[in-house]
Structures are given as structure tokens and as C-alpha cells.
Amino acid sequence: MEDIQILKPTYFPTVPRLLNKLYGKISASIKNTPGFKGWLLRTAVDTKMQNYKNGLGLTHSVYDKLIFNKIKGILGGNVKIMITGSAPIAAEVIDLMTICFCAPIQEGFGMTETSAGGTATHGHDQTSGHVGGPIASVKLRLRDVPEMNYYNTSEPAQGELCMFGPQITKGYFRNPKKTAEALINGWMHSGDIAQIDSFGKVTIIDRVKNIFKLSQGEYIAPEKLENIYVQSEWVLMSWIYGDSLKDYTIGFFVLDPEAMAKYCL
């Protein structure tokens, strides 16, 4: 954070872990600030959120000067656009960070095997919770996953997201077995379950492999749980573990030392 204050970036690529941490601290301040100051803060957030959702932009002539310019200063004050990727992020985090930093946040989806980018949201799209449409050089299609009840004939269409294009890898180094599993007729199988709406927006809703079944037959998607827990102001990192021979999961959490400092002697 000290480097950000010095460098004052205008373009800010980031990851959900940092945005979740900022979200936890800012949302806690919005909720817990008492008196008139708290009322003003919550009113400002509600007003800007409503304006943003109604297509009235990200700035406010009064509230930006009173409140949001101070929040923008956390990232140096000059950020014009932000982009996030590498892991899922909740829609409410995107929305609050967007209005607080007065800058659009584009969310992208991709893999090392697709040379990073595969899809991206549009900077002026007021909807969140999706990863946009395909970038110019990528084609998308959905593969049915009947064992998980996902079909491309559903409404909206659902299935494993597959990508095709010139930047897709030709294969894994000296690993023909893994290459044959992931690349079929040039289409890279991502392992992510996606949903595509009528506007062509892609939403990642599940994982083909990163789920496990508990002994009573319940399926658990650990990444979804982990991304909820890290939104807490108290949690720095989380990891959910399960065993198919057990009927419960275990959560491992790293507490945020800054949040816990006031409780330590």
C-alpha cells in the first residue's frame, strides 16, 4: 500500500484477494461508523449505488468531495480503470469497489493455456457477477456435463466452457495424456462450468473437478465457500477441506493481523 501512495497508478490490475480485503474494511466502516457521519456515509453509498445501477455514472458532485475522494486515496487517487482475474469474485464486491473508487472494474476469465485472456467484461457495463463475453480472438462453446445436470440446451445454456483460437496452447510439454484430455479438436476444455445468457455474457457457476462429495452424498464446492469467507474483515485467507469418507468439512482460516491487533496486548 505504501508503494501505491508513491506511484499513484491510473491503470490498476489486481486480484480478488486484495479487493475482498478492501471490501471487508470499507463495508465494516460503512456499517459501524456511528452518528451523523455514519448516516452520511451510508446515504452516500446508497445514492451512488442507485445512480450507478441506473446508468447515471460513477461520480457525484457532492459525495465524491465529502467521502469518496478519501477512499480513492487508498489507491493513490488517480485510478481510472481496474481489472481483476485469477479467481472468482462476488458481484457485491465489484459493485461497492466500483462506486467507492469511482472507476469501472473489468473482470476477466482465462487460463495459462489460453495465454491468459479468454473473456472480459465491458468497462461501461453496469451489471456484475459475470466475466463478460469472448475477446476478439476467442470462440466459445459449452460441453454438456450430464453427471452434474448441465446442458447447453438449457435456458440459459450451461456446460463446461471450451475455448478455441490462435492463442490456445498446442499441448503440455512431454505430457501427451494430459494434452489429449484437455485439448479435443483444438478446443481447450477449461474445467469450469459456465452459463451464457441471451446477451452472450458468461457466468462461471461451478467446477467440473473441484468439487467433492461427503459421505451422506452432499456435493461441496469449496471455492464458493472460500470466496464468501474472505470477504470478512477478520479473514485474510481461507481453505475448505473435505473427505468423501466423512460427513463434514473443515475450515482453515488465517486471521488478518491488522484487524486483530486491537485485541492483542
Strand order of the largest sheet: 1-2-3-4-5
Overall number of domains: 3
Work out the number of β strands.
14
Number of helices: 8
Could you tell me the mean pLDDT? 91
The helix content, as a percent range, equals 25-40%
Structural class: alpha+beta
Morphology call? globular
Subunit arrangement of the protein = single chain
Break the fold down into its secondary structure elements and pairings.
Blueprint: H1 2-7, E1 11-14, H2 16-32, H3 35-53, H4 63-72, E2 81-84, H5 91-101, E3 105-111, E4 116-120, E5 133-134, E6 139-143, E7 157-164, H6 176-182, E8 183-184, E9 187-196, E10 202-207, E11 212-213, E12 219-220, H7 222-229, E13 235-242, E14 249-255, H8 257-260
Characterise the protein shown here.
The mean pLDDT is 91. This protein has 8 helices and 14 strands. It has helices spanning 2-7, 16-32, 35-53, 63-72, 91-101, 176-182, 222-229, 257-260; strands at residues 11-14, 81-84, 105-111, 116-120, 133-134, 139-143, 157-164, 183-184, 187-196, 202-207, 212-213, 219-220, 235-242, 249-255. The chain has 265 residues and is of the alpha+beta class. It has a 5-stranded mixed beta sheet. Strands 6, 7, 8, 9 and 10 form a 5-stranded antiparallel beta sheet that branches. The chain is 31% helix and 27% strand. Helix 2 crosses helix 3 (35-53). A hairpin with a 5-residue loop joins strand 11 and strand 12 (219-220). It is globular and about 60 Å long. The chain has 3 domains: 2-103, no CATH class; 133-206, Roll (Luciferase, domain 3); 212-263, no CATH class.
